[in-house]
Amino acid sequence: MNDKDGQNKMNNIDHQSLTPPRSEIGLLGWLRKNLFSSLSNTILTVAAIGFLLWLLPPLFEWAILDSIWMADSRKECWAKMEVPEGAACWAFIKDRLGLFVYGFYPMDQRWRVDLSFILLICAIFCVLYEKLPGRKFGLMFAIAFPFITGWLLIGGFGLELIETDKFGGIMLTLIIGVTGISFSLPIGIILALGRRSNMPVLKSLCVMFIEFIRGVPLIALLFIASTMLNFFLPPGTQFDLLMRVLIMVTLFSAAYIAEVVRGGLQGIPTGQYEAADALGLTYFKAHWLIILPQALKISIPGIVNTFIGLYKDTTLVIIIGLLDPLGIGRASLSDAVWAGLAKEVYLFVAIFFFVCCFAMSRYSLWLEKRLSTEN
Amino acid sequence: MNSRISAIIAGIGVASLLSFSVAAGTLDDVKKRGVVRCVVTTGLAGFAYPDKSGVWKGFDVDFCRATAAAVLGDANKIKAVTSTGKTRFTKLNAGEGDVLWRNTTITFSRDNGVPLRFHGVNYYDGQGFIVKKKLGVKSAKELNGASICIQTGTTTELNLADYFKTNGMKYEAVPIETNDEARQNYVAGRCDAYTTDASGLAATRSTLTDPKNHIILPEIISKEPLGPATRHGDDQWSDIVTWVLNATITAEELGVTSKNVDQMKSSKNLEILRLLGVNELSGRKKLGLSKDWAYNIIKSVGNYGEIFERNVGVNTPLALKRGLNQLWNKGGLQYSPPFR
């Protein structure tokens, strides 16, 4: 009895008044726990701070404080600085922004690219944000989106025809990236299921395809798309270069997605398959309702990883003469009026890719958390 | 394994030969399409680069425009097919471009091995060196033991090795990929000298913060005659490209410029009259060009000298002197057969 009372008292005290020790909470506690918990940790922290202090202030000064935004040539830019080349000349990027974004798309038709971009954002929003009211229509729109944009960008049916070799810059990256991402996922899932199928012909076809694509570098595939294909097609056939690239990039990333999804499928306990069978579900229903939702959930990190890789690989198209932002940057650097400002170009392109890829990785983390059913 | 590879290559060769044999009639294709497709580089200072609004400009692009002016009567009807050094010939031979104006060195193996048809030289280049003045080097022969920035996988790499071996000197190669990378490395002092074509050196020098502290050494260690190329198997189209180049050179020699071309139509010089289509040139109809084809070139693009000065001449950032590219009668090598 006494004991119990004592315990109760203790509990009460615990709950009411005792705050954690000062060293465990607040900024100090956090610092101590995370940055200075041991000798090696402390050394690492100090070294990292030192490195940042060494790196950031000059970078900040170079890229922002001293940078020049208004100039018509490299010479003018440098003349405005204390030391030539001592600061960033963003005037160059500003001058070439149109080229970076639209590539060689005709000036008076650029609204079509803008509109496509807005539609892209809408479509992404419809697909990614589940709580949207009327999401069914949103999804239908997202499915129709590639065709609408295709028409908008290329033209025909009332719009001026624009040849795809006018595409370039950020627009080209988005086209290749979005097409690759949205088409390679379904193809990859089908390939993964095919590889795990019991039908020998289907299975070996899928295995052969996946292994062939994975065994060949993307550059080689792009070269095949760009040069060899033309020799084998009947002379005179015009098979759009961008289309060839899109197909190759999609197939390439589909093979990788297939392997990622296969990993997910193998991670599902056999009990789930057996339960689906016991319920009398058909193969497709079992996969659609039970297996794939779980398998895809555990493959999210791998899938997004592949997507990010694909997105960055789009810069390889410069090898076959298509100019993505990096290619546009390099080409702009050969304009003698601006040449020599390589740092600015590469930093700009790096920031562009970082923003895109970081957004993708954040979204996947958020999705994982939301779909997590573990407690 | 080797035999299989060669079988594949042979297969591609046969396929490409097939496509050559059907490729005849480029002129008709171009006229039907209404646009001349030129294989150009993805960017080389002064020679081909996109301006702010995405329009291709430069020395090579101007010759592409001249081709369009001759064939279609409108210099703006061109399409730039951008290509890297690796894909330029396949793009041409696979029919993605009609003509190659892409700072391409004419060599034996390219002419016969690729194969291509070359049509004269629109720019005589050669490999040189740039060094910092404070190094005190006055000649390439004093570069023994120097570290040299060099673009990998190019003929310049082989030329450099040849040159140093011939002169019994040693060097340390600092391999780099692009012109910009070379510039950064050279400025940062990672290499004592940078070697590439003289036109490229001039472009690089113009982008330095202190061009006066750097000199381009007098030695030119290789011959790099740059010229246009076309596919095998279409003589008519090949002749057109040859004579487009010749027309610009002849125009300069005769003093016909884009400004005075209209007055020149009433000149007393018979060759000028033949060039400008006032008097008939026999054989022109076989070439499939209109009477005023050369007039169109000179009117809209200019003669060779004008094209040179506009893109790479002394008043441009590249500030190249005419040098070997001066006319034959002014101490250079540019020489056109007569229009007769």
Structural commentary:
By secondary structure, chain A is mainly α. Chain A has two domains: 2-70, no CATH class; 93-371, MetI-like (MetI-like fold), CATH 1.10.3720.10. Helix content of chain A is 72%, strand content 0%. Chain A starts with a helix and ends with a helix. The model of chain A has no long low-confidence stretch (mean pLDDT 87). With 340 residues, chain B is α/β, with parallel strands linked by helices. Chain B is globular and about 60 Å long. The model of chain B is unreliable at 5-23 (pLDDT under 50). The interface between A and B is large, with 45 and 48 residues.
Properties at a glance:
heterodimer, A: 375 residues, mainly alpha, MetI-like fold, globular, B: 340 residues, alpha/beta, D-Maltodextrin-Binding Protein, domain 2, five-stranded mixed β-sheet, three-stranded parallel β-sheet, 14 helices, 39% helix
Summarize this entry quickly.
With 375 residues, chain A is an all-alpha fold.
